[in-house]
Amino acid sequence: MKTLTDHLAQYAAYHRDPRNLLSHFIGIPLIVIAVAVLLSRPGAQVFGLWLSPVVPVALLASSFYLRLDLRFGLLMTAVLALCVWGGAKLAQQTTAVWLSAGVGLFVVGWIIQFVGHYFEGRKPAFVDDLVGLIIGPLFVAAELGFMLGLRQPVRQAIEARVGPVRLRQRPVDA
Q1: How far apart are alpha carbons 141 and 76 in whole angstroms?
Q2: What are the Cα distances from residue 152, in Å, to 10, 12, 72?
Q3: Nearest to residue 9, comparing CAs of 165, 166, 159, 170?
Q4: If DSSP codes are grouped into helix, strand and coil, which group holds residue 30?
Q5: DSSP letter string over 94-161?
Q6: DSSP code of 165?
Q7: CA torsion 91→56→53→37, rounded to 10°?
Q8: What is the pTM of this model?
Q9: CA atoms 122, 61, 82, 48: torsion sign
């Protein structure tokens, strides 16, 4: 199994332009919330909890993150729990509210992602490896941690493989 550094370095190779990174800080959370919303139906209230297809998906994702790294795994589990909670709240609204929120967030999130990759000049990581779809949210969490000065040995290991985020952006016309 690949390590945390392996996964993050592979994903980071597609994300060295700061404008692309910024787009991911917006687009990926929107997409994760959208998926939680859309997978929150059908569902049912059981012992005060809303159970729907999003629950096993979130549990599988959380177990994947926890196996990679305990600290990031706990953070991602908390984030996913909030997304599941929010998705359940929207799923219990009218079909129009649920569907427009889920589809709207999903479409806007992906548009923002593709704009970022235009600046990067490179296709999204998931095109070459579907695991990139689950690594994306972890990558955003890790990059935020790095910006806050946390987990610097992980950051250094990633940058040793793929280089730092570029300070100068690639010209759009190039």
Answers
A1: 8
A2: 17, 15, 13
A3: 159
A4: helix
A5: -HHHHHHHHHHHHHHHHHHHHHHHHHHTS--GGGT-TTHHHHHHHHHHHHHHHHTT--HHHHHHHHHH
A6: P
A7: 30
A8: 0.89
A9: positive
pLDDT tens, position by position, 103-147: 999 999 999 999 999 998 888 888 888 888 999 999 999 999 999
pLDDT in tens, 10-43: 999 999 999 999 999 999 999 999 999 999 999 8
User: 61-86: b or e for each residue (b if 16 or more CB lie within 10 Å)?
Assistant: bbebbeebbeebbebbbebbeebbee
108: alpha, beta or left? (left if phi > 0; alpha if psi -120 to 50): alpha
Tell me the chain's radius of gyration from C-alpha atoms. 17
